[in-house]
Amino acid sequence: MKDSFFESVYHIVSQIPYGRVTSYGAIAEYLGSRGSARMVGWALNSSHTQKQNVPAHRVVNRIGLLTGKRHFGGPDIMEQLLTSEGINVENDQIVDFDKHFWNPMEELRFTNDEFP
Questions:
Q1: Which of 25, 3, 11, 22 is nearest to 115 (CA)?
Q2: Taking the model in full, what pTM does it have?
Q3: Which of 23, 31, 51, 100 is a good FRET partner for 62, with 20 to 30 A between their CA atoms?
Q4: pLDDT tens figures, 59-102
Q5: Number of domains composing the chain
């Protein structure tokens, strides 16, 4: 189960558009696992082992805080990646979070066949 959940997380995260962000909880809810935001975080902590790039820097907590920033190899890398995509960050929080928020429940349509 863990592997297929992680793969599903990577699949969703790979679809977050450039310059947009989502939350751990929004991904968990989309996958039918509301309340599993931490498991989404665990998946993203392992995303660096994937063959294809998983833009984990585009996933933040429910109020736009860069809570996963320590997992990027340096304290400022996550912020630098977001800034390079036109997202302003102040005090480890995304400015105008609602403007940049990408909700997979609204943006993606799927059937259970689409996920590994």
A1: 11
A2: 0.89
A3: 51
A4: 999 999 999 998 888 889 999 999 999 999 999 999 999 999 99
A5: 1
